[in-house]
User: Fold this.
Amino acid sequence: MREAERGQRRDRPLRSADMEQVRPEILIARLTSPNESWRIEAEARLIALGEAAVEPLIAALHHASPSVRLHAVHALARIGDVRGIPVVVGALGDSENLGAVAIAAEKALVEWGAPAKPALLDAVLNGPDAIRPRALRALGRIGGEDLEGPLTELLTHEVPAVRTQAASGLASAIGPRAIELIAPLLSDPDKWVRYGVAEALVGLGSSRGEAVLREAAADPEEQGQHTQFWAEDLLDKIDELKRTGQARP
Assistant:
């Protein structure tokens, strides 16, 4: 069969009579189509196939096209088979296409919930630096008292982004009890760690980061930039916490 004819067959819409007979590999090939509705249809069919589609979707996360990888992450998350967790954790480091696959992978792992925690913790402790911040953020959003020990240990990690996300993860995972654990990082030598911890504290209703946020608002390198306006917004939130008597020490 000539290449043009193969392309026409790959790109034509699926007829209802075809549905039950389509192999996962054919559907994955359709994820490269320029027609978005056909890609969405193929993703939906892969999800409907369930367990039979898991291994081909895992392989698809190594595809050259970020679009295919993105659809594969979506489908694996919807199927929910734990075999997909390690490879989706690996996708947290996907930087192509403005990190779209990594963003989808982080969301997917949060949706997986508790079953994803061991693989995420392993990525945090043993994975590459590019994966650790997103893995920490996903862990924090999943939450659980069991995360207190591992995340607390990471507050002294040599990589600033890991310290920041460990603090934010603790705040998300265990709530106000994290205040005493993360507040010491307001004196961290890295300003972005200080700023991130101050934001996490405001999220917990604490005003302890006020001085750091004033530092951020006055930072000469950030005048007129997002950081200045972000800090001013958080300072307004602290003022409101104080005004309403809700501010935690």
The mean pLDDT is 90. The two ends are 73 Å apart (CA to CA). Residues 226-243 form the longest helix (18 residues). The CA atoms of residues 110 and 218 lie 36 Å apart.
